[in-house]
Amino acid sequence: MTGAVSGGRVALFASGATFFVFALNAGLYLHSPELYPTRNRAKGAAFGGLWNRAGVILGPVVVGAILAAGGGLTLLFTQLAGLAAVGAVIALFAVETKGRTLEELSS
Question: Is 29 within a domain?
Answer without folding.
Answer: yes
